[in-house]
């Protein structure tokens, strides 16, 4: 739907947009109200918005101009750090020229619309899809209260979301997605941690450090001085790493539905083949930047001694490993590999099938590369997986999971 489609859409919504279409000279009490108005206009028309540049008064430093633009304005910048991307994201920006420009009239203490352009160069979203646009996804006060009640009563995130959707008459009327609900709860607990639990946690760490000078802890703060990531390791963990830290496994699957913080553990095996913990962390998010901070902190706690091999599962963690520990061999955790196989090829695990044992034989049972290739080809042929994308991707990463490549 190009401009002709936009005109048709406007005709159908004539009454709906009568009082919602920006025009020159319109007045607003604040910049935030202006943003809400333009966002509502975007919802009716079927596009998302975002704030663009602004200018401030040289004398007072207060904002005096603001430009609001379509979310498809401009074009995505190329990532200079990772030039080769195996699965690039679909380009969503179209250099759209739609915008609204407002200025502050100091005499009236109001924001005035000075410029407006509705020249869209992309299809507009249908009304039943506008709730999926990022700028439209938000919780109102009543919805936030229902989310809090559901969380406090122990209702699962999915059940709570479905219940609120039913109360609103369907997900298309809800105005937010389950991921937004999760972000709301996580942000709320983040603020609570800053003012309540953070003090208790810091006192615990300080008490441990006073009793044992080898106790190590570190806390990362964001620009608003709010706690984001936490790491700690006691004397026994550090000693175990000195003895058994050649191979380290990193896992973030331990988490609670209540807090939505990932409990990340650095683990390994001792001389009795029992699991030992080298360090623990609470992660606010699981981004590459957070993992880089965590791995750097972990190495600092361990006096800079790097492991010989490092096992992880997430792509973000693997990227961080290549930056912080570029010369360390990193592999894929075979437990997660088997779990992903069950997720992508669950139909092959039916009763009587030997796919699980055949797949495991490729991981652990081959003595050399030639035997591995033969076993893999036999597996693909036996279960007719020639066109399976996950199997192709897994084979490309074989040096990170097949034990024939991990012999020292």
Explain this structure.
- By secondary structure, this protein is α+β, with helices and mostly antiparallel strands.
- It folds into four domains: about 130 residues, no CATH class; about 80 residues; about 120 residues, Nucleotidyltransferase, domain 5; about 70 residues.
- The chain is built from twelve helices and twelve strands.
- The strands form two sheets. The chain has a seven-stranded mixed β-sheet, with helices on both faces.
- Helix 7 packs across helix 8.
- The protein is globular and about 80 Å long.
- The N terminus is likely disordered.
Short description:
Helices cover 39% and strands 20% of the residues. The protein has 408 residues and is α+β, with helices and mostly antiparallel strands.
What are the key terms here?
single chain; 12 helices; five-stranded antiparallel sheet; Nucleotidyltransferase, domain 5; seven-stranded mixed sheet; 408 residues
Question: Residue-averaged pLDDT, rounded?
Answer: 83
**Structural class estimated from helices and strands:** alpha+beta
Question: What gap, in angstroms, lies between the N and C termini?
Answer: 60 Å
Low-confidence stretches: 1-13
Strand content: 15-25%
> Helical residue percent?
25-40%
User: Biggest β-sheet: count, sense, barrel?
Assistant: 7 strands, mixed
N-to-C order of helices and strands:
HEHEEEEHHHEEHEEEHEHEHHHH
Number of beta strands: 12
Rg is 27 Å
Strand order of the largest sheet: 6-7-10-9-8-11-12
Helix count equals: 12
> Tell me, what's the shape?
globular
User: What's the number of structural domains?
Assistant: 4
